[in-house]
Amino acid sequence: MAAVGAGGSTAAPGPGAVSAGALEPGTASAAHRRLKYISLAVLVVQNASLILSIRYARTLPGDRFFATTAVVMAEVLKGNVKHLVLFLHEAVLVQYVDTLKLAVPSLIYTLQNNLQYVAISNLPAATFQVTYQLKILTTALFSVLMLNRSLSRLQWASLLLLFTGVAIVQAQQAGGGGPRPLDQNPGAGLA
């Protein structure tokens, strides 16, 4: 809001200030809350459609695409190709010591993305999506064991519920939750 001076005049609002008539009290928090829920909905749709489209593409009859090509192209398409080439030249050739330090984590990330294609090819989409959430559990356990972090009782209870949900889905899958295509191996998908 604009500040009122000694003579009753109002000073011009500074950068980032909101004029008196722009938003009513409480409207900013309502707009912020609405934006949070819209963002959550978009992320849910994006993640679900990603898994479903990968699953659909990997189970089509005929020749399959290489998962490694899909992983590389997904990373390339995340940014501007010209900037990527300039960045790679700078990072790989000029600052090669830093590149070597990041080689192990980047190779593990690439391996993880390739293994996702193996898993989604061998598991139903819903089973993959639920099982993939185990990364939350492993991250929490490693943060407690390796980083000496502490978790609240609510966080431990949430992790227990997550693990229980994944175990139930896996037990249903192992119990013969319906016919599965012959070229799928749930054990390989879970591993």
What does this structure look like?
- The protein has 191 residues and is an all-alpha fold.
- It has a domain at 123-175.
- Helices cover 69% and strands 0% of the residues.
- It has helices at 27-58, 67-76, 81-94, 96-101, 103-122, 125-132, 134-147, 153-174, 186-190.
- Helix 2 (67-76) crosses helix 5 and helix 7 crosses helix 8.
- It is globular, with a radius of gyration of 25 Å.
- The protein starts with 26 loop residues before the first helix and ends with a helix.
- Residues 1-21 have low confidence and may be disordered.
User: Per the principal axes of the C-alpha atoms, what is the gross shape?
Assistant: globular
Count of DSSP-assigned helices: 9
Sheet with most strands: none
Number of strands: 0
Percent strand equals under 5%
Fraction in helix: 55-70%
Secondary-structure element pattern, one letter each:
HHHHHHHHH
Oligomer: single chain
What structural category characterises the helix and strand content?
mainly alpha
Q: Low-confidence spans: pLDDT under 50, at least 5 residues?
A: 1-21
Distance between the termini: 58 Å
Q: Determine Rg (CA atoms, Å).
A: 25 Å
What is the residue-averaged pLDDT? 77
Give a short summary of the structure.
The protein has 191 residues and is mainly alpha-helical. The protein contains nine helices and no strands. The chain has a domain at 123-175.
